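Repro case for the chain-ordering regression, as requested:
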Amino acid sequence: MTPSASTTTRTNTGTATTSRGVLGTSALRPDGLPKVQGRFAFSSDAWADNMLWGATLRSPHPHAAIRSIDVSGALAINGVSAVITADDVPGQLTYGLIASDQPVFARDVVRYAGEPVAAVAADHPETARRALAAIRVEYEVLRPLVDAEDAIAGSFPAIHPDGNVIRRQRVIRGDQNFTGEVVVEGTYEIGMQDQAFLGLEAALALPDDDGGGIELFVATQWLHEDQKQIAACLNLPTSNVRLTLGGVGGAFGGREDISLQVHCCLLALKTGRPIKMQYGREESFFGHIHRHPARIFMRHHADRDGTLRRVEARVVLDGGAYASTSSAVLINAVTHMQGPYTCDIATVDGYAVRSNNPPCGAMRGFGVVQACFAHESQMDKLAAACGMDPVEIRLKNAMTTGDKLITGQVMESVAPVERCIRETAALPLPSALAETPDVLALPGGSGLTARTSNIKRGIGWGVSMKNLMYSEGFDDYATARCRLADGVVTLQFATAEVGQGFVVLAQQIARSVLGVDTVLLEPISTAIGSAGSTSASRQTWMSGGAVDGACRVVRERLFEHVAAVHNIDSLRLAINGTDVVDTMGALRISVATASRDLVLDETFEHHHRATEELDENGQGNCHVAFAFVAHRAVVDVDTELGLVKVVQVATAQDVGRVLNPLAALGQVEGGIAQGLGLAVMEEIVLVDGKMRNPSFTDYLLPTALDAPDVVVSMIEEPEPQAPLGAKGIGEPPCISVTPAIVAAIRDATGKDLARVPVRPQDIVFG
Amino acid sequence: MTVINATSIDEVVTALREYPAARLLQGGTDVMVEVNLNRTGVGDVIALRRVSELRRWHVDDESRIMRLGAGVPYAELERSPLCDLLPALAEAARTVGSPQIRAAGSLGGNLGTCSPAGDGLPVLSACDAVVHLQGSTGSRDVSIHDFMLGVKRNARRPDELITAVSIPLTRGFQGYAKVGTRNAMVISVASACLVHDSEGGSVRLAFGAVAPTVVRARVAESWLADALSLRGPLAVTPRIAQEFGRRAAMECAPIDDHRSTAAYRRHAVAVLAERLLLRAASSNASGGDAR
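-- result from build under test --
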């Protein structure tokens, strides 16, 4: 039998069906059953009468001048309705999340292999494919900039009018001449990881009859940001571009940027017909941004007793051809270089650069993944240099609430770092390798390569801190609307449900606040105000706060109504179960009865507290809040073949409050699998700017046989700043698990392993 | 585009004469990947799914030769009774893709595509299998060693169908091992198959993914035959096993690519050969396969 990841948890997940699905229970998600039964409509299932198929022509070269584009051959093909290029963009020629620097279509120059050059609309995908093949583009191939250091050194001509350095940010604090009694250093590399969401990019665009507007069904992370960027490119008023969320099959940051949205809308407006576009797996690798590959030098200074005094770091992130969110990823990296440890002195210099590699942007962990691999590798080196063990040194330096960060910002969040470490350490270790083990559970798995005498077990640690919500002065508010009528609540929000489970959380909030059972959800669309992006571990806090706020306002109005009818003070009323009760009297009526013939409809915006930009020395209150987590990994390594089996990952995560135990566990397990992927197998391999493995045949994701046992302790210390007391839990699981696994492999093999993913040859020859 | 749903080998051969450029479609696990990646046009197709002859197998009682239809899916190879008759082939079959792929894919596709990383091919090589081809002018049998010509090149003529392979059944250990960068569902970085014919007195070793085709380590095989008796149980010392692996690795010609490096592949096949030989010896000693 194939062993599958089994999970134990200290949090109770068994209460789902016994309750009304209020907060704190494992209420079942409305999209759960359809998804496991294959009935859920993903974006790629969208269909319209009379629709055409769109397809994209992409550059085969990482850097080339476009001399000419001849589309006549494509237009001559029967069944082809339109071919569009940069010349057909009526509005802004570029888009981008922070800087608008990425062309809708390349016009004079292509800056990465896979950059869109033209798009076609045809009656069938096969016709569209032939049309793409019939477009003649004359390229003059240019030397690509593929080494980030060339961009920093200025040794390469600017490949974009905005220059080759997207952002430089330093963080300077304390005595810059300080030298510790113990000094350790290292240079660490992180490979390019892909989000590898399973539901591929897809959209359906429906043009208005008069051509003055458009409706787009699309799988995205942030409808309103898409809307703004699309409208600018189409030269339409924002309100004439109406977006509805199509079924999303995962995102992990990879859907924050525009991919096919503008192309699809342009083709629809040009042809006057519905356009469907969808990427295949290979095109998806070219169609979205990836995690920044990074090279990080770090030097740690400490007292002989292991007290951390100073961190020095030089951080280089390769942003690829276009800016995307690189500048924000960079500030996350440089402001998290200390890790979850108290440290007064910092000398950090960071660059996000432009190159002719594929563009990089948001991915779960957003810059902190790279920083954490470096600082946690360093903490182990420091422990060794001070003669301490990995747990001891982390406990000694664990950050607490009230500490000052290297940015000068005071840690105001609940910061149970010590507790995360201690509770992780208290979780049971896996049993030792059996004498006659299940061969599939050994390193090498189904390849049957293992010989038990060559297997060594190792244990490693990783601890991380991660900011929540957007930073640097950005007001990423969220909007929600609550309508109560006849005991039924209808909620409306534009929060992108990408698989994280906000659709069930919203229902749980309404049930808890308003004492109703039935909570209906309006389509997720731009018909209501923005909810911000489903990223930065922010939707439970932000959209959760908005739904909670809207429900509370409705509850207040319900109480006022009941109070007026019964001639009592509304402050005496409360929700108890599904009833409105008078806390100082005998009145008890059901919410259904109380709300009969009544329509209460309220909209609420939740804003987090304001933040500031960093100054030139990286000082400023730039982040909203933080969450913490510890990981302990146990691995078995076939030291002779360099093959790894991650046996177990134990984790204690600072979650504030568990709102849905099952959903929380899912985030933890999924994040661990994704962090494991980066540790031992996931990497986009680039040679001279060209991707060598844009497929799931060669871009390897962990299988059930690779997934470890996961043991979890949820640390519930409600966060006073958070509307529901709950911190975001999406990103932390995938951050420190990567260095923990690599540390465990180092423990088993004695090798240095300064680069992820760790490849078999790194273990054998490293 | 014409699709022919053949129901017999004769119909396939007739169709091949009429459509010599047609793709033969058995499980589709290679063809459809190519089609989906636009690397091949969707031209004429001869579908083999309804040709039940291709999914039959039988063992000749006298010669102890297994004749295995080219369309017998991996899912069947990995289960009893076939896994008891051809244990190394079963081990190789279990490493092919996912259960869904194994339900569709078969040795005919491995042979037809003839990738050096084809999981079943090292087993056929180590077993000295014979490939049966049926063409419009008759049938012919080609040794597996002559069948594989290069990367995705084989001796099949355009008018021929791979109908079956013949594999001599032997007494003694046989085992397969495959290195990949994850623990399941992975394309081979390097693989090896070792067959000990304890009656015939030979140990045969073949490697996958370390040369343009699957290779036999014949120099190492004959070195081993000189070093110890191969009839009956193997008296292998750790030193002999290590030397066997070291010598065998010199017989491959691996490359650097996005999956691995030549140096690692060479190292890995040495380790696999050594471990397989030790497994063979301990299997003889204990009557089972001890790891």
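Ordering looks correct now. The domain at 476-606 of chain A is CATH 3.30.365.10 (Aldehyde Oxidoreductase; domain 4).
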